[in-house]
Design goal:
By secondary structure, the chain is α+β, with helices and mostly antiparallel strands. The chain has 3 helices and 3 strands, in the order βαβααβ.
């Protein structure tokens, strides 16, 4: 799976949200194959366990996890973190390419998405 956004680079300019708040460059979405159970603080319990099961070769549908930091940012500001929708869109396109199908209401059961928070996250 393609790495969608590099980690923050020291000294790099920070993106600014529509409310003028600086947000550090960081990865907000991880494919299941990119994580592990040791990343529970970042991926939430479900996301970390899905990543671990994927790495063990268990039958897990392709999918991705929105990070706990993205969830906390949204809960704090009620605004989607800068770049989140771009990353989600890219991951959805990757899922469609892997499956050879477009994601529609009829085909949505073939994908999985975990929005994780170590303590709670709506949705």
């Amino acid at each position: 799976m393609t790495t969608l956004q590099p980690a923050a680079v020291p000294g790099a300019a920070e993106p600014v949200s529509s409310r003028g708040m600086a947000q550090p460059s960081r990865k907000l979405v991880y494919a299941f194959g990119e994580g592990s159970r040791s990343m529970a603080d970042l991926l939430g319990g479900k996301g970390a366990n899905l990543a671990e099961m994927t790495s063990l070769g268990l039958p897990v549908p392709p999918g991705f996890t929105v990070t706990t930091q993205a969830c906390r940012d949204y809960l704090r500001t009620r605004e989607l973190p800068l770049g989140l929708m771009d990353e989600v869109t890219e991951h959805l396109a990757s899922l469609e390419a892997v499956r050879g199908k477009r994601l529609t209401r009829r085909t949505r059961s073939w994908s999985a998405c975990a929005a994780g928070h170590a303590t709670r996250c709506p949705g």
